[in-house]
Amino acid sequence: MEEKLDFARVRKLMVENQLISRGIRNKKVIDVFLKIPREKFVPEHLKEYAYEDGPLSIGKGQTISQPYIVALMTEALDVKGGEKVLEVGTGSGYQSAILAEMGCEVYSIERIPELARTAKKVLEGLGYNVKIKVGDGTLGWDEFSPYDRIVVTAAGPEIPPSLYNQLKDGGIIIMPVGDRYFQDLILVKKIGTRMERRSFGGCQFVPLIGTGGWKDEGEM
Ligand code: SAH
């Protein structure tokens, strides 16, 4: 009989070898990554690779981000619990689950209906109450704004103005900014009319498609 993969064991190895060893220090972030079953967020045939050190395909030309990048963004968001967070790019729903488990009230927008549907099902199955909508996330989600935190998990040429406008004073937005293939992970803190900007270095994300992002070059 085929032996079942011990996901808890590989999850722990991922946290040690990919997160802690690269400098993720926030105890709450580490605990959350030890808890969330990433294998539930990847397609059936890729489950055995769920804890690999890289992004994985989730269909429709999209990916679930590398664990380290999700951890880096989560740590940079600096949440204590109770924050209202907007995510642009639900994808698999993994980042939403991480934020919900951190104690945040999560609103997430995905442009591809099939992905939104699957993510919703997985999140509900795990008992997370994440509000998901299908649409162009570059326009934000005005109805529930302003947000304490905004995390954009697809890459665009600049921070979409609508998103910045829906951020609270003192709030943080994090987003990969650059060209279609290479970007810098940028964090901006809104302090009154001032912007405090910080870079976390190079990264590669799938493109943010929409009004405040890139033009659609045809479905994959
Ligand atoms: N946070 C996700 C990563 C998904 S990849 C996870 O944890 O799995 C980025 C996602 O952004 C893709 O699913 C893509 O379809 C979506 N996306 C791209 N442009 C978008 C837009 N304008 N609005 C909402 N979602 C968008």
Describe the structure.
- The chain has a single domain (7-203), classed as Rossmann fold (3-Layer(aba) Sandwich), CATH 3.40.50.
- The protein contains 6 helices and 9 strands.
- By secondary structure, the protein is α/β, with parallel strands linked by helices.
- The protein has helices spanning 7-19, 27-35, 67-77, 94-101, 113-125, 161-165, and strands spanning 56-59, 62-64, 84-88, 105-110, 131-134, 147-152, 167-178, 183-191, 194-203.
- The structure holds S-adenosyl-L-homocysteine.
- S-adenosyl-L-homocysteine is lined by residues 62-65, 88-89, 91-92, 94-95, 109-112, 115, 136-138, 153-154, 206, 208-210, 213.
Short description:
This protein has 220 residues and is of the alpha/beta class.
**Helix/strand order:** HHEEHEHEHEEHEEE
Trace the largest sheet across and list its strands.
5-4-3-6-7-8-9
Strand content: 25-35%
Helix content, binned percent: 25-40%
The backbone outline, from C-alpha atoms, is globular
Quick one: CATH class?
Alpha Beta
Biggest sheet details: 7 strands, mixed
The CATH architecture can be named as 3-Layer(aba) Sandwich
List the SSEs and their pairings.
Layout: H1 7-19, H2 27-35, E1 56-59, E2 62-64, H3 67-77, E3 84-88, H4 94-101, E4 105-110, H5 113-125, E5 131-134, E6 147-152, H6 161-165, E7 167-178, E8 183-191, E9 194-203
Bound molecules: S-adenosyl-L-homocysteine.
